[in-house]
């Protein structure tokens, strides 16, 4: 089974400073790669890796950041609420 991914964004998210968000999922099958999709402020990102780099703004405060992981027709999505300082 595919577990729900967790998103880590580091200790502090500050408006105007670049953030690296990481989508973490327990998975091991190198012959069948996962497909990762990020969604930030309702906008799907073209970033396909498990790390999304973005610059948050004050408008991002209390907004969801999500990453969806797809594998063999199944998709699970993890969310985190951004706390922007």
UniProtKB/TrEMBL annotation:
Membrane-related topology note: Single-pass membrane protein
SUPFAM superfamilies: Immunoglobulin
Coiled-coil segments on the chain, per record: none
GO cellular component: membrane
UniProt KW keywords: Cell adhesion, Lectin, Membrane, Transmembrane, Transmembrane helix
Database matches in SMART domains: IG
Entries under Gene3D superfamilies matching the protein: Immunoglobulins (2.60.40.10)
Chief location bin: membrane
A Pfam family of this chain: Ig_2
A molecular function (GO) term: carbohydrate binding
Family matches, as PROSITE patterns: IG_LIKE
Subcellular locations according to the entry: Membrane
The protein's name in its UniProt record: Ig-like domain-containing protein
Ig-like domain sequence ranges: 5-77
Xref: PANTHER family: SIALIC ACID BINDING IMMUNOGLOBULIN-LIKE LECTIN (PTHR12035), SIALIC ACID-BINDING IG-LIKE LECTIN 13 (PTHR12035:SF135)
Source organism, top-level taxon: Eukaryota
One annotated GO biological process: cell adhesion
InterPro entries to which the protein is assigned, alphabetical: Ig-like_dom, Ig-like_dom_sf, Ig-like_fold, Ig_sub, SIGLEC
Family: Belongs to the immunoglobulin superfamily. SIGLEC (sialic acid binding Ig-like lectin) family.
């Amino acid at each position: 089974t595919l577990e729900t991914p967790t998103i880590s964004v580091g200790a502090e998210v500050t408006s105007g400073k670049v953030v690296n968000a990481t989508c973490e999922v327990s998975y091991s099958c190198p012959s069948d790669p996962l497909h990762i999709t990020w969604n930030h402020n309702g906008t799907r990102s073209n970033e396909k890796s498990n790390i999304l780099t973005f610059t948050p703004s004050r408008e991002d405060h209390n907004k969801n950041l999500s990453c969806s992981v797809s594998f063999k027709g199944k998709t699970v999505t993890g969310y985190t609420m951004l706390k922007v300082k």
